[in-house]
Design brief:
The protein is an alpha+beta fold. The protein has 3 domains: about 80 residues, Fumarase C, Chain B, domain 1, CATH 1.10.275; about 280 residues, Choline/Carnitine o-acyltransferase, domain 2 (Chloramphenicol Acetyltransferase, 2-Layer Sandwich); about 190 residues, Chloramphenicol Acetyltransferase, CATH 3.30.559. About 40% of the residues lie in helices and about 15% in strands. The strands form 6 sheets. Strands 13-7-6-10-11-12-1-18 form an 8-stranded mixed β-sheet, with helices on both faces. It has a 6-stranded mixed β-sheet with strand order 14-20-19-17-15-16, sandwiched between helices. β2 and β3 form a beta hairpin. α8 runs antiparallel to α12.
């Protein structure tokens, strides 16, 4: 069935044939959003708290009230022909560019790849990844990348323009992103032993073959030797204001530093050749998530990490692209290599290939002081964070579908049940929903906790409740989660609309009581920050928690395994109570929840369906 969205005959290329005709992000109807808001907060509030919140909501939407005025302003903004997406600028600034804490842990995310059985050596694996990534870049540059669809309708492809030859630049009070010509800038940056190397992947007008790229990587390894260089990359792990000051000090330290930095910032992407060998899933995930903080440049949107034992992964800078976009790139890389779909070029190496060139960044005492502070801050932050992975085999997409469940909904109920097992209460949960069916759409919050989910988790932990009732409550909770997600992906959730209304306030206006109500903060304090994607080629995916007393839970529901990445601070304190080894304990609760649900739902399947 053909999409309803008309094709634009003047599109720059097939990749953008629907782009101009995608619908604009809507502004939901005010009363509807407030009704949804009240319904979403009710299960998280006491009767007294809810009464106050309900009164604040009534005042907000009263005829002639400030809520009605803010709605008018927001609608006017959405209808402004000069604004493509009413939320875009505000969201980019407040969620990302204006955010001042370190991007490591707080913003960046990672994918850990499964092993490549054909490529065990680091230079070999890095070269294959690079060739595949360059194929993907070619599709973007030529605007031939196949369009993504959801339920038969095209998705916005705009954010792919930020993927290659792009960089986040620290500034006060808000960072900026800068793009470079992807055709002119054909080089990549390779980091080894903290040293940065310029490697052009085009020579005499011809792209290097995988064999030639492998030689260049091996040359970098040889050139870097055993001694580590000054860890200038660690500056990108800093608080953004500190990094802004450090970058200015770096530019002032030597006249050549500006051009040197621009070589890094303009590169297609970065390949980090790390000198250590993670073995377990937990070790690989941590190595991809942050590594040692030195052999990185976290402001680049694309960093591939390849380790001494041939394991590999990806680190993404989140500000301009969401995970679904970079997951497509990474899945393409892994799948293309696994299925031998990549043109690796000739196996011979041209003798005229120039040596990689080390990029010299000169540091004076001021810069060295910034580096020392950055190392201290990074090491302290990493020491206070835990990460662990649960890979629950035999309960993947194939099995969950036999239970007649949405795999995503099933995973969300596992998380809710696990949290209740550990803490005896349900708390505010964020699940990312995608709004890319709209022009420059990004995400909306799916509020997973509902009256239905709470009834389900309470029943699961009550041995007196019969299984038939538990199953019925489970399916009712699934339905509630799916219904909210349906609203969210259609840009009719609660959170982005309220965000827009708050941003429509003028500086001299008093905040309405809806926004100053303590319950407003309480019910959007995301104790559980969750998101999912799936790839049969990934063995890890994750990011950090968004609040100090919460968990970051990234999950993948692949064909035969459901996998959870659990991240939190090490000294986890919730409501005044300290949880030693909280991350590991929550992983155990997730495992227990998986077992309980598998057992419960297996009893429901007729005997012949189990075969």
């Amino acid at each position: 069935m053909a999409p309803k969205t008309p094709i634009d005959p003047n599109a720059a290329g097939p990749m953008f044939q629907y782009q101009a005709n995608l619908p604009k992000l809507p502004v939901p109807e005010l009363n509807r959003t407030i009704a949804m808001y009240l319904k979403s907060v009710r299960p998280l509030l006491s009767d007294a708290e809810y009464q106050k919140t309900e009164q604040a909501a009534k005042e907000f939407i009263a005829p002639g009230g400030l809520g009605q005025e803010l709605q008018k302003r927001l609608v006017a903004r959405a209808q402004d022909p000069n604004i493509v997406n009413w939320m875009e600028e505000w969201w980019l600034d407040q969620a990302y560019m204006g955010y001042r804490d370190s991007v490591v842990i707080n913003v960046s995310y990672f994918f850990a790849y499964k092993d490549d059985k054909l490529r065990k050596k680091p230079a070999q694996r890095a070269a294959a990844i690079t060739t595949a990534a360059l194929e993907f870049k070619k599709d973007i540059v030529q605007k031939t990348l196949p369009i993504e669809y959801a339920k038969g309708e095209p998705l916005c492809m705009d954010s792919y323009k930020y993927m290659f030859n792009n960089c986040r630049i620290p500034k006060k009070p808000s960072d900026i992103e800068i793009s470079f010509d992807p055709i002119e800038n054909t080089h990549i940056i390779v980091i080894r032993k903290n040293r940065f190397y310029f490697v052009d992947v085009v020579h005499n007008g011809q792209q290097l073959s995988t064999t030639e790229i492998e030689q260049q990587f091996q040359r970098v390894i040889d050139l870097a030797g055993q001694d580590k260089g000054l860890p200038l990359g660690v500056l990108t792990t800093e608080n953004r204001d500190n990094w802004t000051d450090a970058r200015e000090a770096l530019l002032a330290a030597h006249g050549e530093n500006k051009a040197a930095l621009e070589k890094i910032e303009s590169a297609s992407f970065v390949v980090c050749l790390d000198d250590y060998s993670p073995v377990t899933r937990d070790e690989l995930s941590r190595a991809c998530w942050h590594g040692d903080g030195r052999n990185r440049f976290f402001d680049k949107p694309l960093q591939f990490a390849v380790f001494e034992n041939g394991k590999a992964g990806f680190i993404g800078e989140h500000s301009c692209m969401d995970g679904m976009v970079t997951a497509r790139l990474n899945n393409y890389i892994c799948e293309s290599l696994a299925k031998n779909k990549v043109n690796h070029g000739t196996v011979s190496v041209r003798p005229s290939l120039p040596q990689p060139v080390e990029i010299q960044l000169y540091a004076d005492d001021a810069v060295k002081g910034h580096i020392a502070l950055a190392e201290k801050n990074f090491d302290a932050a990493i020491a206070n964070h835990d990460l662990t992975v649960l890979a629950f085999n035999g309960l993947g997409k194939n099995q969950i579908k036999k239970f007649k469940c949405s795999p995503d909904g099933f995973a969300q109920m596992v998380i809710q049940l696990a949290y209740y097992k550990m803490f005896g209460v349900s708390r505010a949960t964020y699940e990312a929903g995608m709004t890319r069916k709209f022009q420059r759409g990004r995400t909306e919050t799916n509020r997973t906790v509902s009256n239905e989910s709470i009834a389900f988790v309470k029943a699961m932990e009550d041995p007196s409740v019969p299984d038939t009732e538990k199953i019925a409550l489970f399916r009712t909770a699934l339905k509630a989660q799916g219904a909210y997600m349906g609203q969210a992906t259609n840009a009719h959730g609660v959170d982005r609309h309220l965000f827009g209304l708050k941003n429509s306030l003028r500086p001299n206006e008093t905040k309405p009581s809806l926004f100053t109500d303590p319950s407003f903060g309480k019910t959007s304090h995301w104790y559980l920050s969750t998101s999912q994607l799936a790839s049969e080629y990934f063995d890890g995916y994750g990011w950090g928690q968004v609040v100090p007393d919460g968990f970051g839970i990234a999950y993948m529901v692949n064909n035969h395994v459901i996998q959870f990445n659990v991240a939190s601070v090490k000294d986890l304190t919730i409501d005044g109570k300290k949880y030693v080894n909280g991350t590991v304990h929550f992983r155990q609760a997730l495992e227990s929840a998986c077992e309980d649900l598998r057992e419960l739902l297996s009893n429901e399947i007729p005997a012949q369906a189990k075969l």
